[in-house]
Write a structure and sequence with these properties.
The complex is a heterodimer of chains A (about 80) and B (about 525). By secondary structure, chain A is mainly α. Chain A is built from 4 helices and no strands. The chains are: A mainly alpha (about 80), B mainly alpha (about 525). At the A-B interface, helix 2 of A face helix 11, helix 12 and helix 14 of B.
Amino acid sequence: MKALLEILEELHPEIDFETHKSLIDDKILDSFDIITIIAEVNDEYDVAIPAHEITPENFNSASALYELIERLMDED
Amino acid sequence: MLFTSYGFILFLCVVIGLYYIIPKRFQWQLLLISSFVFYYFSGWSNLIYILVTIVSTYFIGMKLGNLNKQQNLYLKENKETLSREEKKAYKERIKAKRWRWLLFCLFFNLGILAVIKYTNFAIANINNIFTLFKMNELSFVNLIQPMGISFYTFKTMGYIIDVYRVKYEPERNIGKLALFVSFFPQLIQGPISRFDDLSLSLFKEHDFNAKSFSFGFQRVLWGYFKKLVIADRIVVAVLEITRNPETYDGIFVLVGMVFYAIQLYADFTGGIDITIGIAQMLGIEVKENFNRPYFSKSIVEYWRRWHITMGTWFRDYIFYPLSVCKPMLNISKSSRKRFGEQIGKKVPVYLSTMTVWFTTGLWHGASWNFVVWGLLNGFVILVSQEFEPLYAKFHQRFNVRDTFGFRLFQVIRTFLLMSSLRILDCYRDVGISFRMFGSMFTKFNINEMLTGSLLKLGLDISDYIVLLIGVIVLISISLIQRSGSVREKISGKPAIIRYTVYVLLLFSIVIFGAYGIGFDSNQFIYNQF
């Protein structure tokens, strides 16, 4: 989780990713941010997030995103 | 059959009348028959194309669904006996089969679209090369573009990709799928609905609801007002300017650019108002396609608010899959190693953005004008993205605050930027478009506007008065919309005010609609895409 928070904070240092729960709904993360995050997550966790998992529910908070990463790692 | 034809009004009255008379369980079948009747009037041979797309999408959708079921059943039945590796291998096999079916469906239907829409464009380009080498030119083929093919093909592609992704089960009733693909109000210019958004209300049984019917009717009237009073009037001046670039350069290009922005907005949003309004009269919910786009403060925001269903379609089915596919992730890795972290991680963003905008341009039309228009949009978006930190520093350094004046400046800047890019829609080739854009700076002479030149563009003073009032009404409505639905607001007023508004709207369409000599009933701009 720590590595994920670092990835997110590098993109938007002004946001508290531990508490924010509406990153997509509040338009904090845009599509450019999302694909940058996916590339970095792929590097860090060696997991590929497929396009159909790019949903507001999965990207609205760091914890939801981390759950997705764990789920995809399990499926592997 | 144009939305603006008397034939369509008559057709619509019959369909709506029958819709609420027949037993409710037959409503969706009536809509299906009506959609095919509507399509038949655009040319019976066009029916073949849409039928082929419906049938192929249906059977491949079913195949994808069945393969998925087969996989789930097999894994469930052999849960205890299969090892993790065997399960994984089985899943991979099924996935490969499903992937092949998906690709077949996409290439087949996209192939139809590509052949019909782009063959002559390809031939023209090949001929350009042949001319260079003094070779014999190829002759053009005579292919008639079926109405709305870009829209319905994209709808079916979205559907089949969603079924592949197991977002939902395939539709088992071919009639229902056919209705989703061919639903007549949105057949010719969208919005590009998603199956899971539209299907629920499309196939549901609907009781007559006076409020929904009345709101839908008002929306239809509003759409006709935009189309007939504004778009079909101002188009005369737009065509006069853009078809005669030798006569009208300099300040006229600016006038044409602004006029075209008004025309396109009134035409496209008017058409969508009619579509969504008709659907609402039938009790069906169609997703919005616009969110007051000309009030956007940046190009990125503009594209979030203009032709929303197309933008989200490209984002979900091209931009994201392309950006996160394995080859792109590998490019991302290697470019980070090669160019460093900061520049390297932007490479996939650049590649995907430019690919999406190239495709968006091509989708709009088979000409280099649209390709260049698309690429320029992508370029401006990327440049704005890169300059964002610089803007922030500049604003901080010079204490630029988020005042009304600054926001107005941003809105006007975005409007002019988008209007400048749209010059490519208007002129016959890319060279002329750039030359005309340049002439705005090199031959700008405001005095030309003071000598009555505007009255030589095919519109007289009364037309300009109607247009001015029309545009003021458009802007006022958009401003009121910021605080909620205008129709809700009107419905809360006393009956006398309500009916005065409706009657005024109706009469303004009848009296001020652009009909008659010089104002031929025009096709909607997006019908051609």
